[in-house]
Design brief:
Largest sheet: none
Helix content: over 70%
Shape: elongated
Number of strands: 0
Structural class: mainly alpha
Order of helices and strands: HHHHHHHHHHH
Mean pLDDT: 83
Radius of gyration: 23 Å
Strand content: under 5%
């Protein structure tokens, strides 16, 4: 009984760390986390679907590279409150409003990294593929994209972590996942709720980054190859 009273007292005392909050609000935390993950995943996937053709267009027509990069950078500099206000007449107070805003914010990272990855493909690899009869589409999908994957995946990782953080801003329209709990906790000075939701956001970002890093390593096994033997520094030490 004393342990139960002690657990309840942390809520009454409004402590930052409170096990009773986790027990009594577990369903609320789960629902907010699921919404947060759903909004993040959908936003990054749509952002990637939009960024890829933009990057290809900018590469195919260099005169458009400046405007494309400039536009995506401009979108990233728009404050979230202003962005949502501009999109509100089109989407209303819905999850689509938040997803669209997050997609627009992710474009500058994704477009730049896709273009950088494609630009880093060795010219010899392209020439060898063309010599073997590869057409433009086959060259892109079977040669250039695999070699550009490290830069592309790096962009996806950055965009995902950034989107996890920016999703909390969706609390402005009630569609912010864990951001809703953070906002409510700040408004009511509910310390345990603010701390728990914030830590879950950090945990989501860390887990997402590690998962994507694992996917990147699986898709690019050649990047793990290391030259056998001691490094020059070790040789000098010996």
């Amino acid at each position: 009984m004393s342990a139960e009273l002690a657990a309840q007292s942390c809520l009454a005392a409004n402590d930052w760390i409170c096990g009773e909050y986790l027990r009594s609000r577990s369903e609320e935390l789960t629902d907010a986390t699921v919404q947060h993950v759903w909004i993040t995943v959908v936003s990054v996937l749509i952002g990637l679907a939009v960024a890829f053709p933009l990057a290809l267009l900018a590469r195919a027509k260099p005169r458009l590279a400046g405007p494309v990069l400039g536009l995506t950078t401009l979108l990233y500099t728009i404050p979230s409150l202003a962005m949502f206000s501009l999109l509100l007449p089109v989407f209303g107070l819905s999850a689509a409003l938040v997803v669209t805003g997050l997609v627009l914010y992710s474009l500058t990272i994704l477009v730049r990294n896709i273009m950088a990855g494609l630009a880093a493909v060795p010219a010899e690899a392209r020439e060898a593929a063309r010599g073997m009869g590869y057409g433009p589409a086959r060259l892109l999908w079977e040669v250039e994209l695999p070699l550009a994957l490290p830069a592309l995946m790096a962009g996806v990782r950055i965009a995902t972590v950034s989107t996890v953080a920016l999703t909390t801003v969706g609390a402005l329209v009630g569609k912010g996942g864990l951001g809703n709990l953070i906002d409510d906790g700040v408004q009511t000075t509910f310390k345990a709720q603010v701390l728990t939701a914030s830590l879950l956001c950090v945990l989501l970002a860390a887990v997402a980054d590690l998962l994507l890093l694992g996917v990147q390593r699986l898709l690019t096994p050649w990047t793990r190859i290391r030259t056998a033997g001691p490094t020059p520094g070790i040789k000098r030490a010996v």
